[in-house]
Each structure stands twice: as C-alpha cells, then as structure tokens.
Write a structure and sequence with these properties.
3-stranded antiparallel beta sheet, two-stranded antiparallel sheet, about 60% helix, elongated
Length: about 350
C-alpha cells in the first residue's frame, strides 16, 4: 500500500537470522543530492518502530478477516460498546492502557469513515486523518489492553449493513471520545496531540450534525399520541427527577418519545430503561440530555428478538428459520407505525 502512494520502503535484515528487524521509509521527491532521504520508523514516531509494530500485531495474518455475523448490525453494536469502554478508560485507566485505546480508536475512526455512507463521510475521513497525530505520544501503549476495541474496529471495516440510527449512535460515542482524548492529552501537556484531537472533534461534530438532523426530524414526526407522551413524561420524572426538566426542555424530547415507544415494543420498560441508560454516564454536562438519552437507548438490544433467538436455539425449540430481528429502536412495520402514532 505504501509503495502505491510512491513511498519507498527499505527493510532492515538481520545479518545472522535473515529476518526483518526494522524498516525505513522515503517520501516521493524527498531527496538530497539525488538520493532518497530515509527515515526509520522510530524517527517518524516512537510507536512506529519495528518492535512497537510487532507488539500491536502479534498474531494478525493478512487473511485475518472477521466471520460474517447472523445480525448485520452486530459490528456497530460492538464498536459503540468498545468506544464507550475506551471513554471510561481515559477517565480512570492507567496511561499505558489509555494510550493503547487511543491508538485503537484511531483505527476505528478510519473504519467508521469506510463503513459510513452519505455526505457526512467526508467529515469522518477528515477526522480520522487529523486524529492520527492525536493517537501517538511518547507514552508506551499497552496495545493488548485495547484488543476489544481493535477487534471491533476490524469488524466495522467489513460491515455491509447500514443500521441507520445505530450508526449515528456510534458516531455520537466517537464524538465524545475525541473530546475526552483532547482533554486527556491536554492534562499531560501533549499540546500537539490535544490540538489534533480537538480538530478531530470538530470534524466529527460537523459529520454528526449532518447525519443526525434528518434522523431526529423523522423521529419527531413519528412521535406517539399525547397519552403515550404523557406516560413517558411520568416515567422520566420518576426515573430522573433531577434531570427531567432539562430533558423535557430539550428540542430532542419528541424524538426521544418515539425511541422510547420503539424500545417498549422491543420488550423494555421505559422507566427502568431511562434509569439504566442515565446511569451509564453523567448527564449534568450534556447540553442536549434528551439527545444523549435517545442515542443511548438506540443501541439497547431488542429483548423480544433475543428471547426468540434463545428459544430457537434450545433443544425442542422451533426449527423454523429465524429472520433477522431489528434492534430495539428499529421502526415497526408501516401499518403498526400508523396505528401507534396516529
């Protein structure tokens, strides 16, 4: 791939073993007296040395491609979960573990841009490019600690299904992780990395707004009947008494009621669900708490679908093929939507 970009690659061979012990790169047109100027991997960045690369890629093979999944939305679910875990690591994990997750997050951004469709893709590609600087520092990364995020990123690269709202929920999680990465670097005096992470955040923010606006507008149009909205308001006040007024004042509240209605159809209890997703991370600093809750609920599993799959896999269960089931917030069929939201 490097050679296709015009970059020359010169491996360093050990004299006794004959194995590759390192490498050097030369950029096209970068010469001195007509000869290429070579840079070793460690000169480009500490984590690009041959030894560091081997730490990250101890068992990977060229044909190491994830197996197809029964649920095509599963790669998006796993990536969103892994990104939220990485956010928690930046808050409380050790520096080496956090650095490993930042490096894996950089791969995730590239693959998210690859798997996304629509005009916002350009912003995601720009975010991935600028975050390359934010994921490198002098801190030695614990890459093994970020295995789950790396695996999720790899699966995302082969995703063939556009999950709609779930993809935006993943983008929303990535948006907040990039902001957390900027803060993490800033606290450690990594000025260049902090600036790069902040720039990536701006690109992700622009991409998110472009992708989310039509989806939130559609959810708002499909808001349930007044009686259902009133019931959800009571659930909200009971589950989140300290945040209820802020959520109700958020322009995304009508969209959230649609998402709650779909989650209820998928087997969730709205009051309990609101309490559970609010506990995932504080809401005090969220400018749009209803929007935050909406995407957290979007990624919740479809309990009815899970139960159906479990029944079909148990001895004596139905032998009929099980159709792919929607996620908790996938729209119901058209007649059901008309009946519920009329």
């Amino acid at each position: 791939m490097l050679r296709s970009l015009g970059i020359q690659v010169k491996p360093r061979i050990g004299p006794e073993t004959g194995e590759v012990t390192g490498y050097s790169l030369a950029a096209p047109g970068d010469t001195a007296q007509g000869e290429p100027i070579w840079y070793g991997g460690s000169k480009l960045a500490p984590d690009l040395s041959g030894n560091r690369l081997r730490e990250r890629l101890p068992t990977q093979e060229l044909d190491d491609r994830p197996q197809p999944m029964a649920d095509p939305a599963e790669p998006w679910h796993r990536a969103e979960t892994a990104i939220r875990h990485a956010h928690a690591v930046l808050d409380s994990g050790g520096e080496a573990v956090a650095q490993g997750h930042l490096y894996a997050f950089g791969d995730t951004l590239h693959n998210l841009a690859l798997a996304s469709h629509g005009p916002h893709r350009a912003e995601l590609q720009a975010a991935a490019q600028v975050f390359n600087r934010a994921r490198r520092s002098a801190i030695r990364a614990d890459h093994q600690a970020a295995t789950a995020l790396r695996e999720a990123a790899k699966e995302l690269a082969y995703a063939t299904h556009d999950p709609g709202g779930l993809a935006i929920a993943l983008l929303f999680a990535a948006l907040y992780l990039s902001r957390a990465a900027a803060k993490w670097h800033e606290q450690r005096g990594h000025e260049q990395q902090a600036a790069a992470a902040e720039q990536a955040f701006r690109h992700l923010q622009a991409g998110y707004q472009e992708a989310a606006a039509p989806v939130l507008a559609d959810l708002t149009r499909r808001a349930p009947r007044a009686a259902t909205i009133s019931r959800f308001e009571q659930d909200l006040r009971a589950a989140l008494p300290n945040q209820a007024e802020r959520v109700l004042a958020d322009p995304a509240w009508p969209a959230l009621t649609t998402t709650l209605a779909r989650a209820e159809t998928a087997g969730h209890y709205p009051r309990r669900l609101l309490a559970e997703v609010a506990a995932l991370r504080e809401l005090d600093t969220a400018e749009r708490p209803a929007e935050v809750l909406n995407w957290r609920i979007t990624v919740q599993p479809n309990r009815r679908a899970q139960a159906a799959r479990k029944r079909s896999s148990t001895p004596g269960g139905s032998s009929r093929p099980l159709a792919l089931q929607p996620s908790a917030t996938t729209p119901a069929s058209r007649p059901e939507e008309r009946g519920r939201h009329r």
